[in-house]
Amino acid sequence: MRYLFKDALGGQFNLYYKEGGLNQALQTSSNKETLSIAWNKGDSQQIKIEGIDYIFPANAVIPLMAGQEFQFFQASSIVLWRFNREFYCIFEHDKEVSCSGFLFYGMHDLPFIYLEEEDQEKLNQLQDLFIEEFNFDALLKGEMLRLLLKSLLIKLTRLARKQYFGSSQLSECDFDTIRSFNLLVETHFKKFHLVKQYAGFLNISPKTLSNLLNQHSQYSALQVIHNRIILEAKRMLFYTNKQTKEIAYDLGFMETSHFSRFFKNQTGLSPQFYKVNLKKNVLAV
User: Fold this and answer.
1) CA 201: distance to chain centroid?
2) Are 112 and 238 part of one and the same domain?
3) Residues 113 and 186 in one domain
4) Which CATH number is 204's domain given?
5) For residue 206, what are the CA distances in angstroms to 80, 90, 210?
6) Same domain, yes or no, for 191 and 133?
7) 154 shares its domain with 49
8) 219 and 250 assigned to the same domain
9) End-to-end CA distance of the chain
10) Cα(8)–Cα(11) distance, rounded to whole angstroms?
11) Range(s) of the domain holding residue 127
């Protein structure tokens, strides 16, 4: 089943549920400015993200970034919400949902959110409300769908925060600092590679920023920066025909050898070996 809402300002919101043709629909739609939330209601299955296969656990949710290419192996088991910036901008509404720099534009590992039975029931109820609103012809349909989407984002942010930070005594101020750091990295990783540069943006010392990440995150501040650079490098190696020298320059490395050494230190592979073998494995599937 496919549900679609469009407004006069270019806003678009989709909900897919028990849709066997979901992958085909994704191939024909633009995802450059579209954020997605996928819920696997079936058994554990594979999900292909940017050419790489991962295990998508049963009863788990994953936020998917704008621009990411993804494909499900059991599409009919997936509930997928998709919305563009014109429909609901998570940056403009950050005080409402607090998900920018965390659910989206922040968690560089695959941020699977695992649902307990009670959480599954709440999401089922929310899904029913979405469907009911899609089927209801009213002038305020867009506003109601935005309210429901906001509820979904708040719920998932709370669950993810509990899952990733656990019993850690993370204050709202520290949580906002971590999110702000993640957003800054997302914006400036091609130009700035040092912790002290981001600490300067945040008006705190590099030591304070490093200690905050060391205490509350599985990655250090420097590793967050490195992870984002590597993620972009992998995308460029897979999706473009750029030479290693061009990629190095695009990512802020003055010397190709410096980039190649950095890439190998982080991944264990040279950029060229990664490019050739990843494409070979994808074509063999």
Assistant:
1) 23
2) no
3) no
4) 1.10.10.60
5) 39, 28, 6
6) no
7) yes
8) yes
9) 28
10) 7
11) 2-165
For the whole model, what pTM was predicted?
Answer: 0.85
Could you say which of 165, 186, 220 is where a domain stops? 165
Beta-sheet strand order (sheet of 34-40) = 2-6, 12-17, 78-84, 34-40, 60-64, 113-114
Cα 92 to chain centroid distance, Å, stands at: 18
- In tens digits, the chain (285 residues) has pLDDT values of 999 999 888 999 999 998 888 988 887 776 668 999 999 999 999 998 887 789 999 999 999 988 888 999 999 999 999 999 999 999 999 989 999 999 998 866 668 999 999 999 999 999 999 999 998 877 789 999 999 999 999 999 999 988 888 766 788 899 999 999 999 999 999 999 999 999 999 999 999 999 999 988 888 999 999 999 998 998 899 888 899 999 999 999 999 999 999 999 999 999 999 888 765 554 343
Domain count, the chain: 2
Strand-pair category, 2-6 with 70-72: unpaired
38 and 102 both lie in a single domain: yes
Whole-number Å distance between alpha carbons of 141 and 12: 12
Give residue 73's Cα distance to chain centre.
19
